[in-house]
Write a structure and sequence with these properties.
Length: 99
């Protein structure tokens, strides 16, 4: 039963990823109004991976092993992707909002 639930969840995630990729491919560059909460959103995006790293934490050794071997590297990759995305967003923001 659990494997069926995991398969359904993975299929839903793949579906959403495919929809988002098709939206990105078919997107057109348009002027967007600047977000007044831009700095708060950047701080939230950078804090989210660290929050999810330590949120479901317990003191048994299995959790510690999982934390060190799986969650820490994934969190580092996630954080680097967020920093790259924010850097690209700032670069595009400065390019298209010169006035």
């Amino acid at each position: 039963m659990a494997s069926i639930c995991i398969f359904i969840a993975a299929a839903i995630m793949v579906g959403f990823a495919a929809i988002n990729i098709s939206k990105i491919i078919n997107a057109k560059v348009a002027y967007a109004k600047p977000n007044p909460y831009r700095k708060q959103l950047i701080a939230l995006y950078l804090a989210l991976p660290l929050l999810f790293l330590f949120f479901p934490f317990s003191t048994d050794w299995d959790t510690y092993t999982f934390l060190v071997t799986i969650r820490v590297p994934i969190t580092i990759v996630w954080e680097l992707l967020m920093v790259l995305g924010i850097w690209l967003d700032n670069k595009m923001y400065k390019k298209y909002h010169k006035n």
